[in-house]
Design brief:
Distance between the termini: 31 Å
Bound molecules: adenosine monophosphate
Mean pLDDT: 96
Strand order of the largest sheet: 5-4-3-2-1-6-8-7
Number of helices: 15
Oligomer: single chain
Shape: globular
Low-confidence stretches: none
Radius of gyration: 21 Å
Structural class: alpha/beta
């Protein structure tokens, strides 16, 4: 059966999934896996559609020293042991810059253009591009598709897309891009199926995971995001501070004399829940800790979520529904309950029993604003995009040949 390989590569792990293309074009998840511990304790793990273990093996550090090597190991395992040779590969690429409002086929020119955005997403972009480059070099005939986290937000109005800085910087690409777009696009496409009564309305979607943001959806399209030029802005995250006065960065550079790369490292890796609690970036750990700093980090997260929801409600001029998704949003009834309390003034009333069960709809029948939990699936979104781009390029190739 034909398959699509989805690759989501980070600095220390390469996650991958295989989707089988059914006769009617539907996609069925066949397996998921990851190579983690790259450069430290490399390990390949994979599970089948039912969660059954397909692989769990350690590798010597020198055999998987970087992201490209991790993909080579995963690719060899898929080919030699699972007999899978995918029809195409879809990649998550965090930054598509100002020009990309949809996924695109990969070629050398695209990679060169995307490399320009490395400074805007230093912890993601180079690692997203590494497997693309490696496949271009080693399997040039294999179709690849780049799917961007920024693309879904490209239709924002100018007032939502700009900072109050001279226009020349906007023209250079200093814009409020917004991220987690593949997740929001998946939710926007899923709502008509699971909650048709709200799908066309004004919705705030809260993607609360190790990275966290909110998106204002209107008629299934993104109109505002809490994230901006980089994925540092907006809500506090596992290790990123979220919204912060640019003056703090100046203070670190001048008064504290920190080097720019140290400031970058600090902002991406040492702040957020980890920085505030001094304990962990993991919400589960903070919720079970008895340390008052852990409790404060959770209080801060909840408070800021409420503030940003208020901002997006203003962008939408009122809201018709609120949706939770991603690791914290899908799994933590405690955090959902506390954020819902913050949204009481907007007309949110949670149903505690439904919330505890992680039901689809977790608000009371009489709640003015209904609240939902909708699991996200960025990998499926990438697989769907990859298949569409593949079909479109085959169709265009046939048409060109015929004309
Ligand atoms: P993600 O990046 O979407 O995988 O989400 C990761 C975050 O979700 C981490 O902070 C986890 O601690 C958090 N998370 C996952 N399950 C739970 C849970 N049951 N309760 C609280 N937080 C959770």
């Amino acid at each position: 059966m034909d398959t699509i390989l989805v690759v989501n590569a980070g600095s220390s792990s390469v996650k991958f999934q295989i989707f089988a293309i059914e006769g009617d074009g539907a996609l069925r998840r066949q397996l998921k896996g990851q190579v983690d511990g790259i450069g430290s304790r490399p390990r390949l793990r994979a599970t089948g559609a039912d969660g059954d273990t397909l692989a769990d093996r350690a590798y010597p550090i020198e055999s998987i020293a970087d992201v490209a090597a991790a993909l080579t190991v995963a690719g060899a395992w898929l080919r030699d042991e699972r007999r899978i040779t995918p029809l195409a590969v879809g990649h998550r690429v965090v930054h598509g810059g100002p020009d990309h409002d949809r996924p695109v086929p990969v070629d050398h020119g695209l990679v060169a253009r995307l490399e320009r955005y490395t400074a805007l997403a230093p912890l993601h972009q180079p690692y997203n591009l590494a497997p693309i480059k490696s496949l271009l070099a080693n399997l040039p005939a294999l179709p690849q598709v780049a799917c961007f986290d920024t693309a879904f937000h490209r239709g924002h109005k100018d007032v939502a897309d700009q900072y109050a800085i001279p226009h020349q910087l906007y023209d250079e690409g200093v814009r409020r891009y917004g991220f987690h777009g593949l997740s929001y696009e998946y939710i926007a496409r899923t709502l008509p199926k699971v909650a048709p009564e709200i799908a066309a309305g004004r919705i705030i979607v809260a993607h609360l995971g190790s990275g966290a943001s909110m998106c204002a959806l209107q008629g299934g399209r993104s109109v505002e995001s809490t994230m901006g030029f980089t994925a540092l802005d907006g809500l506090p995250m596992g290790t990123r501070p979220g919204q912060i006065d640019a003056g703090v960065v100046l203070y670190l550079l001048t008064t504290k004399g920190m080097r720019p790369d140290a400031v970058q490292d600090f902002l991406y890796r040492e702040c957020g829940l980890k920085g505030l609690s001094g304990i962990s970036n993991d919400m589960r750990e903070l919720l079970t800790s008895s340390d008052p700093r852990a409790a404060f980090a959770v209080d801060y997260f909840v408070y800021r979520a409420g503030l940003h929801a208020g901002m997006l409600a203003a962008a939408l001029q009122g809201i018709d529904a609120f949706v939770f998704t991603a690791g914290i949003g899908e799994n933590s009834s405690a955090i959902r309950e506390r954020i819902a309390e913050q949204l009481g003034w907007l007309g949110v009333a949670l149903d505690r029993a439904e919330n505890a069960k992680h039901s689809l709809k977790i608000s009371q029948t009489g709640s003015r604003i209904p609240v939902y939990v909708v699991p996200t699936d960025e990998e499926r979104m990438i697989a769907e995009h990859t298949l569409s781009v593949l079909w479109a390029s085959r169709f265009n190739a046939k048409r060109e040949k015929a004309s």
